[in-house]
User: Fold this.
Amino acid sequence: MINRVEKLSLLSEMIAFARIDNSLKEIEYNFLLGVAKQLEITREDFDYLLDNPVTHIHLKSHSERIVQFHRLVLLMNLDEEVAEKDLIRLHNFGLRMGLGHEAINRVLDLMESFPHKIIPPDFLIDIFKTQYN
Assistant:
């Protein structure tokens, strides 16, 4: 289980990812607020993070890093038009998290084949399990 500091770091990282275009759309805000609720972060703390990012903390758990990568994939695909720079940035986030290069590429390639580019969690986990073994 991750602690509060790690949760704030995850959320801060997601906010930074969503703001790649220097704005935060309402749909992105609502998605991030939903993640904050899942992580048991108050709305006040979430709103504070919007203007005050916290330092990135590397997650120790491989499974938590996969979950965070999946959140970033979902966040990226909220926008109907995904630019090449978004894919590159997501790929780099995955590498920074310590996820396998081949697994990240496979996720990014396969997401096109799913409705709304949403890869089911079990499918995503299988991709990383195969790479991890």
Q: What stands out?
A: The chain has a mean pLDDT of 89. The chain has two domains: 1-57, 59-132.
